[in-house]
Write a structure and sequence with these properties.
The complex is a heterotetramer. Chain C contains 14 helices and 15 strands. Chain C has two domains: about 1-140 and about 275-350, Response regulator (Rossmann fold, 3-Layer(aba) Sandwich), CATH 3.40.50; about 140-270 and about 355-390, 3-Layer(aba) Sandwich (Rossmann fold), CATH 3.40.50. Chain C has helices at about 1-20, 35-55, 75-85, 100-110, 140-145, 145-155, 165-180, 200-210, 225-235, 255-260, 280-290, 300-320, 325-330, 385-390; strands at about 20-30, 55, 60-70, 90-95, 115-120, 135, 160-165, 185-195, 215-220, 245, 265-270, 335-340, 340-345, 355-365, 370-380.
Chain lengths: ~325, ~260, ~400, ~290
């Protein structure tokens, strides 16, 4: 067709540029991960924890950053994954780590569906309150079902098999870390594909103007519910990773505190971009680890100061502001 | 398809409290219709649009689309049946490009917008159609800019492009030229000329020049009821229309 | 890159070589957050131990590394414990205020060849999770059982049980019920209250309606105990002659200034009162109060930490500073000594501490401060919880 | 029957305590559109000041309350000037980040300055003890809290609906640019409203201290409760907040009486049902 002859290059270039961008991003994650492995061989447990939480933060980003749904109850999805994987191992003897991960993902998806159906009944502040109510209900349910979950003592007795029958989950946490890094990379690749897909575009549309989306004949609610389920898969994998690597699941994984902290990490890094979520998580947890080791008694003040500083000097979040600045420099050069 | 009109509104009624905002309105459209709906401020045009598109539920009366009763259908379902609207105040995704907008609409029409893998840029049919529509409306050069970076007049054109991409049977244009500087209305008119011939179009508009150039038929709404239904030539001669417009609308139309 | 790796390896070797004469002890506890007070008490107990006994055992020097887990968070606890073992090279893990935090770290012990000394976490089952766990605090079963006899002796036969709805609360409910029914009493109703309860008035109404003559209560130490005790008085239960029995968490010393007159006369059973009258305790309290800064903040976790350090010092002595968890734990099985709380023994079988449990009553001292006055001693109490679980 | 009355009285007292503390938050969130998660932190500061004045300095209760309100407002003024002013009109998530940061800092400072123990505010003789209502006795300070709640509600209503300041405030909220064009100094209006909200927080923190005791984690422990109450009532509406507090107080109290072990379930299920039925808050319907 004549029209397409106009500039077939531009679209192709855009496509190639985004794909290159994604590849660079993935490569960066792997490189940082490998450097982390060699630079902090004794801190792998912390690094694994960061990866698990990063999956939760990514999952919040899917609904908050990409669809505009604010939530303070997302740990429900993470905790569901953690408990499902843990219960499968402790009560049913399903100790294969890959199988546990799949169970976690499935449970996360289910929890995503349930909490999505409730939370999406309102907007704005009432929505935030619904999400708080949901996480408290999940928390109470886990506390009550103590014969399954161990209640407040935590669910212990989770002993995952060697990964692929070859690699034991050892004291040094090497296997858990490598497995976690692998999961993270796979998830980020899939999410890259997702956010660039027609569905990803639809989700961004929902964030910017739901009314316009429905005027195009698409169902806003269905988009949001589907995204909630996907988000549940991601968070559930994070929860399962947590259960596998620490071999115990506590009520904290279903808590308001974790939900709120994860949201703070996301906003810290910058919403609406996968890398923002990762940068936010790493910065927050690393900062917390360093300051709390330096002063276990009064580190909270430092974290508070960091948050205030970010709002004042990097209002789009750390990654968002950096990307914006780089974009401006790049723009001037062009 | 049956022999009835493509689109029909029967005895539509909407009350807010004791006030009838839409009072027993009936009208119908056939393929190829070019209808302008006009009326002074407060005549109930916006309410009527919302009733037709399904954003408001009527107290009584019915809406039919292609022989089907859609009175109880949601706005979304009506779009899928071929009733598409544009907005009086631009509603677009400011962080996305025109190309993405139109491609999304095309994908949505084809039922492919839920696909979670692949990019529209690697779907040749979608790309071809999107670029064709953008080209038709003269937006192709802007296709890679963010919408927030392009001029308002062009954003209005993109609204029309979006509607076209959905290939409607009935198109409801809510003041397509609202907020566009006089110098650029020609481009809007130009775009309207390119709408498919068999499409039924209902336009709500204040700009009488545009109405006269575009419409083959005019309906005047005042105080919630239809007071005139006829040709553009006759509308200015009608006594009731003059009465309804005296004062309030005479000023508004010259200002528009 | 190569340089970096070399440097890292050098650092690792250097740090592992360094503990030839410095023995590191990693202490995990809540040093910030809502339970920071209890973490502060850990540190005070440990500092008091060093103040009284020095920080050397033979020619080895003990160094304590603190890690913060503000709220029960097993994942973080495990990550920090792991970091302490592999990165900091600690030979002993200690502390652990919450049960899930302690449980989470137990899988590390055998692989890391590290004993764990639990300084607070009070669920019976922890010691069964690994043969390298030794506990110097108490269990909820241990402190909740004797109060049943106290209630019976006071002539109360119908009791309503009110506990916070979480692990230790459930333990307390079961312990009391078992012991009270054994002596012929009856628990007419057992209510579990959400941890987040702010207003206890409706629950006091339930107590009135139940027709019980006494209340058994377990709440974690901290803000909620204040509301509970006040509601008990203000709703006329105290004046109505209903007696309140509880393990000592309800009236920990650091909460007493806030509870004030409201708590006067409340009887609790516990393993330690700051007021315990013995020369050992006198010197301990003096050192610990100095360490904590504000004397009013001193409470029971400090003594668990103090004795925990004593046990660790004995372990170091037995192993000569070598890392040998099995030998270290073996050495303290059956160990007896006089703690600030009184005579204690590490039970060789369960590795839990056998100790006196005291009946105390909140009283007002001459200087206007409040304290737990010991009025009766139940000697050599083991952990009935472990037996009950079997 | 007696039990029903008794529960009702408890519910009323609990609801009014919630009301006194949360109403300030309703003002900031509804009228100034700031999600102020640090509200509880200011209530806590009030509690600390009152405790210090009454317990450590031995001042009277009334003086302590006054000092608490004035002192907290004085502390809040620079915070408003340098931090809050930056987030008026910012996205909700940014406001959440900023105000959580402020909360963390205040907790850290309170912990450092006053230590982690519980702080009480000694009541005057008149408020100690219990009053016999015939069918039961109730603590005098609870009656006092009920009265305080009613007085605050009435005073606020008058301030917003009946004074020149109220008119300017509502104008500034509806359309800041227009109000500014009409000569209303919106910055001052905002600063004053913020001060009023903080003063109410401090007042509530002191009056409610018997039920919600003052300690460093106060700010986080009750944050969710305040947020829920305000949003269930409909932010910015005084009658809405009052209804929400009484309703949620009643649900909480009744649930705690009938089935304490499922108290949390009742409460949050009720919240979900109410929010779904009244998405714009209880007061939304009546506007």
């Amino acid at each position: 067709m004549a029209v397409t002859m106009h500039d077939p290059m531009t679209a192709d270039k855009t496509r190639r540029r985004t794909i290159t961008g994604s590849l660079i991003g993935i490569a960066a994650i792997i490189i940082v991960g490998v450097i982390g492995y060699f630079l902090f061989p004794n801190n792998l447990a912390l690094l694994t924890r960061i990866i698990a939480i990063a999956l939760l933060v990514l999952s919040i980003d899917l609904v908050t950053g990409y669809c505009g749904v604010a939530t303070l109850g997302h740990a429900a999805l993470f905790g569901a994954g953690a408990y499902a994987a843990g219960i499968a191992a402790a009560h049913y003897g399903i100790t294969d780590p890959v199988l546990m991960t799949l169970i976690g993902a499935l449970a996360g998806a289910l929890a995503g569906l349930v909490s999505g159906l409730i939370i999406l009944r309102a907007h704005g502040l009432p929505q935030l309150v619904l999400s708080i109510a949901v996480i408290h209900l999940f928390h109470e349910a886990a506390n009550k079902a103590s014969s399954w979950t161990g209640g407040s003592d935590g669910l212990s007795g989770i002993a995952p098999d060697a990964l692929l029958g070859l690699f034991e989950f050892d004291l040094w946490g090497r296997t858990a870390y490598v497995y976690g890094l692998f999961l993270l990379v796979v998830v980020v690749i899939l999410l890259q594909v997702l956010v660039r897909s027609p569905f990803g575009m639809l989700a961004r549309g929902v964030r910017e103007d739901p009314l316009r989306i429905s005027a195009m004949g698409a169902s806003v609610k269905s988009v949001l519910i589907r995204m909630y389920v996907i988000s549940g898969v991601v968070a559930g994998i994070g929860g399962a990773l947590n259960a596998i690597s620490t071999q115990v699941v506590g009520l904290d994984s279903l808590s308001f505190t974790l939900s709120a902290e994860a949201l703070v990490m996301l906003v810290l890094g910058g919403t609406g971009s996968l890398y923002g979520a990762l940068v936010g998580t790493v910065t927050f947890l690393w900062f917390e680890d360093v300051v709390s080791a330096a002063n276990p008694f009064h580190w909270l003040t430092m974290v508070g100061a960091l948050l205030i500083a970010v709002v004042l000097f990097a209002p789009k979040g750390l990654y968002g502001t950096a990307a914006h600045l780089l974009g401006r420099i790049g723009g001037e050069r062009r | 398809m049956n022999d009835g009109p493509l689109f029909e509104v029967k005895n539509l009624q909407k009350n807010f409290g004791g006030l009838s905002v839409t009072d027993n309105v009936s009208l119908s459209l056939v393929p190829g219709d070019r209808l302008a709906l006009i009326g002074p401020n407060g005549a109930g045009k916006t309410t009527f649009v919302n009733l037709v598109t399904g954003n408001l539920a009527p107290n009584s009366g019915s809406v039919h689309l292609a022989g089907q009763d859609v009175t109880r259908s949601s706005a979304m379902q009506r779009v899928r049946l071929g009733l598409v609207r544009s907005f009086q105040v631009t509603r677009l995704f400011y962080d996305m490009t025109p190309e993405e907008h139109v491609a999304l609409a095309v994908l949505q029409r084809e039922g492919r917008s839920g696909r979670m893998i692949g990019q529209f840029r690697s779907m040749p049919t979608v790309m071809d159609e999107a670029r064709e529509i953008l080209h038709l409306l003269g937006l192709l050069e802007l296709s890679q800019f963010k919408v927030r970076e392009i001029a308002y007049g062009q954003q209005r054109l993109l609204e029309i492009a979006l509607a076209m991409a959905l290939r409607p049977k009935v198109l409801l244009l809510d003041e397509p030229a609202a907020g566009v500087p006089q110098s650029e209305t020609a481009r809007i008119e130009h775009a309207l000329d390119k709408l498919p011939a068999d499409l039924a179009v209902m336009m709500i508009e204040h700009d009488m020049d545009l109405v006269f150039r575009f419409a083959k038929r005019v309906i005047v709404l005042a105080a919630g009821t239809v007071i005139f239904d006829g040709s553009p030539q006759d509308v200015t001669q009608d006594a009731r229309v003059r009465e309804a417009y005296l004062g309030s609308y005479a000023n508004a139309s010259s200002a528009a | 890159m190569k340089k970096l790796v070399t440097a890292t390896i050098a650092a690792v070797i250097f740090s592992s070589a360094a503990y030839a004469d410095t023995i590191k002890v990693g202490v995990v506890g809540p040093f910030s957050g809502p339970f920071a007070l209890q973490g502060k008490n850990f540190k005070a107990g440990i500092d008091a131990f060093f103040a009284l006994n020095g920080n050397t055992v033979g020619d080895d020097t003990i160094e304590v590394i603190y890690r913060d887990v503000p709220q029960a968070d097993p994942a973080q606890s495990k990550a920090l414990a792991q970091e302490l073992v592999v990165k900091e090279g600690v030979q002993y893990l200690a502390g652990f205020y919450f049960t899930p935090d302690a449980m989470a770290a137990t899988p590390i012990l055998e692989q890391g060849n590290v004993p764990m000394v639990v300084m607070n976490a009070a669920t019976s089952a922890i010691v069964t999770k690994s043969p390298y766990v030794v506990r110097t605090s108490f269990t909820t079963w241990q402190t909740s059982t004797p109060i049943a006899k106290v209630a019976k002796d006071a002539g109360v036969t119908k009791v309503i049980s009110l506990v916070s709805d979480y692990g230790p609360g459930v333990d307390a409910e079961n312990a009391f019920k078992a012991a009270f029914e054994k002596v012929g009493g009856q628990v007419v109703e057992a209510i579990r209250m959400p941890l987040s309860t702010n207003d206890f008035s409706p629950i006091m109404q339930r107590v009135k309606d139940s027709g019980a003559e006494g209340v058994f209560a377990f709440l974690p130490s901290g803000p909620t105990t204040l509301g509970f005790v006040k509601a008990f008085n203000e709703n006329g239960l105290k004046d109505g002659g209903i007696k309140l029995f509880a393990p000592g968490d309800l009236t920990q010393e650091s909460d007493l200034p806030a509870l004030g007159d409201a708590a006067l006369g409340v009887q609790t059973t516990f393993h330690y009162a700051v007021s315990h009258d013995s020369p050992e305790n006198k010197s301990f309290v003096e050192a610990a109060q100095k360490a904590i800064g504000n004397p009013a903040e001193l409470s029971f976790p400090s003594v668990g930490a103090f004795d925990g350090m004593y046990v660790i010092s004995k372990m170091i002595e037995a192993t000569g500073g070598e890392q040998d968890a099995a030998k270290a734990v073996e050495a303290v099985k059956g160990l007896s000594w006089t703690s600030p709380r009184g005579p204690v023994t590490i039970d060789p079988e369960s590795r839990h501490i056998t100790q006196n449990i005291y009946l105390r009553e909140v009283a007002k001292a001459d200087d206007g401060t409040y304290y737990n006055k010991e009025i009766q001693t139940f000697e050599n109490q083991g952990d009935p919880g472990l037996a009950a679980a079997k | 029957m007696q039990t029903v009355f008794s529960i009702a009285v408890d519910a009323l007292a609990y609801g009014m305590v919630l009301f006194v503390i949360s109403i300030g938050l309703s003002v900031t969130m509804g009228l100034m559109r700031v999600v102020n998660l640090a509200h509880g932190a200011f209530a806590m500061i009030g509690g600390y000041i009152a405790s210090y004045a009454a317990r450590d300095l031995g001042l009277g209760y009334a003086v302590a309350v006054l000092l608490a309100v004035v002192g907290t407002v004085l502390i809040a003024i620079p915070v408003e000037r340098f931090l809050y002013r930056r987030i008026y009109g910012a996205p909700e998530l940014t406001q959440v980040l900023m105000t959580i940061g402020i909360t963390f800092c205040i907790i850290g400072i309170a912990n450092f300055a006053f230590g982690p123990t519980l702080k009480t505010i000694p009541l005057p003789e008149a408020l100690r003890g219990s009053v016999d209502l015939g069918f039961r006795s109730i603590a005098t300070h609870r009656l006092f809290a009920i009265v305080c709640g009613l007085v605050v509600a009435a005073a606020l209503w008058v301030l917003i609906e009946r004074t020149a300041f109220g008119i300017k405030l509502r104008a500034a909220v509806d359309n800041a640019a227009m109000a500014a064009a009409l000569g209303v100094r919106t910055e001052i209006i905002y600063a004053v409203s913020f001060a009023v909200a903080i003063g109410l927080a401090a007042f509530g923190g002191v009056v409610g201290a018997e039920l919600l005791p003052v300690e460093p984690y106060y700010a986080l422990r009750y944050m969710v409760t305040f947020l829920v109450v305000v949003s269930v009532g409909g932010a910015g509406s005084i009658p809405g907040a009052l209804m929400a507090c009484l309703l949620l107080g009643a649900i909480d109290t009744t649930g705690r009486y009938l089935a304490p072990e499922y108290g949390e379930f009742f409460f949050y299920l009720a919240v979900i049902v109410i929010v779904i039925l009244f998405p714009r808050g209880l007061a939304g319907r009546f506007k």
